[in-house]
Design brief:
- There is one protein chain.
- It is built from 2 helices and 5 strands, in the order ββββααβ.
- The protein has helices at about 50-65, 70-85; strands spanning about 1-5, 10-15, 35-40, 45-50, 90.
- A 5-stranded antiparallel beta sheet has the order 1-2-3-4-5.
- Helix 1 (about 50-65) runs antiparallel to helix 2 (about 70-85).
- The two termini are about 20 Å apart.
- InterPro entries: DUF3567 (IPR021951).
Length: about 90
Amino acid sequence: MHMLYNSDSFIVVQFDVPPAEPQAVAAGPQLNRGGFEIVDKFARKEIFIEGALAESFQQGVQALIEDGEPSEDDLDAFIERYAVMGQQPVVMH
C-alpha cells in the first residue's frame, strides 16, 4: 500500500498484491492484483478501481506528469473524473 497523492480534496492510495505463485505467460505482461483507492474528502465517498480502469487511471496520471509538472488543480480535476463513480461512503471506525 502506497499513498500516492493527498490534497485538500482527494487521497489516492495504490495497492499492489503480487500473485501467490508466478505464472509463465507466453506473451504480455505479468498481471498483478491490486489497484487504486480514491477517496473524495468532500463527498465522503470512496472507490476502488482495478483492472483496465486502474490501468487507464495510471496512464492518465503518467501523461499529466510527462506533459510537465501538473498543478494540484490539474491533478484534482483528473482524479475527480474517477472519484464521481464512488458510491461507498467513508466510515471511520
